[in-house]
Design goal:
By secondary structure, the chain is of the alpha+beta class. It folds into two domains: 2-119 and 279-284, Probable inorganic polyphosphate/atp-NAD kinase, domain 1 (Rossmann fold), CATH 3.40.50; 131-261, Tumour Suppressor Smad4, CATH 2.60.200.40. 30% of the residues lie in helices and 31% in strands. It has helices at 15-29, 43-49, 65-72, 91-95, 102-111, 136-143, 146-152, 154-167, 221-232, and strands at residues 2-7, 33-38, 58-63, 80-85, 113-117, 120-122, 126-128, 131-134, 173-177, 181-184, 186-190, 194-195, 199-200, 211-216, 242-247, 250-253, 259-261, 264-265, 270-275, 280-284. A hairpin with a 3-residue loop joins strand 12 (194-195) and strand 13. The relative contact order is 0.17.
Length: 288
């Protein structure tokens, strides 16, 4: 079996590098063909590496959700994927029941089966495996230093969250879809059910179309705090001021609203979001 290990060496306070070398040693001992790639601050380094991957090569991504997003935007074939999450939220690990220890990765590689996972596309170019959103979370991710995020994880995000909450200007975005339209101070377009880690936002009623949408009207800092508390407790769908639906496409105008994609800051004045025509494929041990 051919296996490529793609890792962000600073994820998990350097744990990603140690786990990668451990996996390399264990897989080679099992007679698998293994090669490594450590990501760098320059995405072009990965762009030059991925064309050499064989179509049947299995890819293990070791890092955070942002590292996984970087990888899927540079792959040229539908490689079987495994995500070993060492980031802050690791939403994909929860959504698709991915391994959390390096020894489990070996079981996934040798006994796992393919599970097709939907992904989205922003303006026809940027893929995402999880979500796009705009609002306070985008402001937090735009203001936090990556080194602080790598070193302190959720604590760094929580501290920046308090600072941003006290100064956030409540800009409004507009969303138009084939199903409904809305305005709001927070918007979420997602391919998955979870947000921020283990927090489930969407249920079976929001899965009849590929994109899951949430729009929230928020007019005060107290309302913003309550909104995110409810979001993290899985109660956001019950709040009357939150609209939730599914759609085949979405067009968003958010000129002043900070945004994020798969856990990394990403702002754009106008976006068109559609499902990608082809899924990505996770290796899983049971039904995700």
């Amino acid at each position: 079996m051919k296996v490529c290990l793609i890792a962000n060496p600073v994820s998990g306070r350097g744990k990603a590098a140690r786990w990668t070398h451990f996996l390399e040693k264990e897989l080679k001992a099992r007679q698998h063909v293994v090669r490594l790639f450590f990501t760098t601050p320059n995405p072009q380094d990965l762009a030059q590496f991925t064309p050499d991957l064989a179509p049947d090569e299995r890819v293990v991504v070791i890092g955070g959700d942002g590292t996984f997003n970087l990888v899927i935007n540079h792959l040229h074939h539908p490689h079987p994927l495994i995500f070993l999450g060492l980031g802050t939220a690791n939403v994909l690990r929860v959504e698709y029941r991915q391994p959390n220890k390096p020894r489990q990765v070996i079981d996934f590689l040798e006994r796992g089966h393919l599970f097709p996972a939907p992904c989205g596309s922003i303006n026809g170019s940027r893929k995402f495996a999880m979500m796009w959103s705009c609002g306070l979370d985008g402001a937090i991710l735009a203001s936090i230093h990556q080194k602080s995020k790598n070193r302190f994880g959720k604590l760094a995000i929580a501290l920046r969250g308090v600072a941003c909450l006290l100064s956030y200007p409540f800009y409004q975005a507009e969303i138009e879809t084939d199903s409904d339209n809305a305005k709001g101070e927070f918007m979420l377009v997602s391919c998955i059910n979870h947000y921020g880690g283990p927090f489930r936002v969407f249920g079976p009623k929001q899965t009849d179309k590929p994109l899951k949408i949430m729009s929230a009207r928020i007019s005060s800092r107290w309302q913003m705090l309550l909104f995110f508390l409810n979001l993290f407790m899985g109660r956001a769908a019950r709040r009357a001021q939150n609209a939730i639906w599914s759609a085949d496409w979405a067009r968003i105008r958010c000129e002043q609203v900070p945004g994020q994609v798969d856990g990394d800051a990403f702002s754009c004045a106008e976006l068109r979001i559609e499902p990608c025509p082809d899924p990505i494929f996770f290796l899983v041990l049971d039904k995700a």
